[in-house]
Here is the input.
Amino acid sequence: MLTIQLANSSTFRGGLRARIETAPPAPKPALADPEAWNISHDPASQIVTVFVRSSEGVTAENLRRAASLLVRWLAYNKIGAVSIDLAENKLLAPESVFALAEGMLLGDYRFDAYLSSVESHTIEVNLLTANPAMYENALDRAVVICEAVNLARTWTNEPPNVINPVTLAERAQNLAAEYGLICTVLDDHQLREMGAGAIVAVGQGSNTPSRLIILQHAGSANEKPVALVGKSLTFDTGGYSLKGSEAMLGMNVDKAGAMTVLATLIAAARLKLKTPVVGILAAAENMVSAYAYRPNDIIKTLSGKTVEVLNTDAEGRLVLADALTYAQRQFKPRVMIDLATLTGGVVTALGSIRAGMFATDDELAASLFQAGERTHERLWRLPLDPEYAELIRGEKTDLVNSAIPGRKALPIVGAIFLKQFVDDGQPWAHLDIAGVADAEKRRPYCPKGATGFGVRLLMDYLETLE
Here is the structure.
């Protein structure tokens, strides 16, 4: 467990101190652990130095990385306390303290709920300053937002025998009650009655049917809400368009978009944002059974548009189609943003560095891009030219759920399909996070597994609206 507190530098005494310094690039050849070049400990002076080896100097991102390395070094060496003098390290701006705390809190995360034996360790970090009050808000915000990121990571990492659409709805209701959110859950019977045929179809092969989970942060501003919509496939076999066994591994992470939405709503409530925010989690489990939907099935969506299923493994766009329609009809949002691990094609295009962004509104796209640059949850805008819609035009139905022909422009096809369910004039952005939602190996302040991508980005964006 990690705790960070502000302490007055004039009265604090003793213990290990940490410094953050710039340094030239590490010598070559690198050690087996490249990060070993970036930290040193002098037992005589009781000073541990973390080196920022970057031509950019001490940026917010480099602070996050340095702080993460520090707490992991402390944990590895079983050191329980450290102090950092903000003035001595030239960390005088509240934004620097925010980034420092982010790196520590995110870097300390572990998903160890299912280990039979876990060695507990407590680290106390004291930030020394002559003016603690100056940094209290920055530290409080960092704690709330990072706890939300780590919540998103944990729930995304949870296995499918623990989180399914039904148990997710129960968990969301409990969390909403704890933090003062309004929570509404629509079950498969209600969804069928209202005409949401797409989300019902995707989940009808499972023993745990689909749920649409709606979370509302009322805020205090008298304006239309920002709607956040998340794909929550609690597990995805691919359905009758069955995934291979290797491709099926890790499909518990296919709920990452919705976990980001849920965590963002929690952070918005805890920080008492003025802006009203609505979160919609489109939850389903895509399984194979006698009741599962099939290729060539024709589905009527909540919007009234019909879709022929060409690929049951292109299910995320179907659950989102009904969720987007519901968001617009029910809340008439000022802005609508969806997040989804939607396509493998975006991984091919952008790897694990940036998420794909599609938008109908240039101002919204610019705002999200800048939020991504500030938080290092980076985006890259991809096109939505109307000609791409020809790839999903049906012959027997309004639309098909997979491209004709073949595997052209896969991330764009997914996005242009969703666009068919966005009203004209509605500012909307789609973030395809398939490449960034899950870390195949440790990253600077994220262990292997779910990353919680998007919580910090969305909170940064929402805070600009305040």
User: Anything to note?
Assistant: The longest helix spans residues 136-157. The two ends are 32 Å apart (CA to CA).
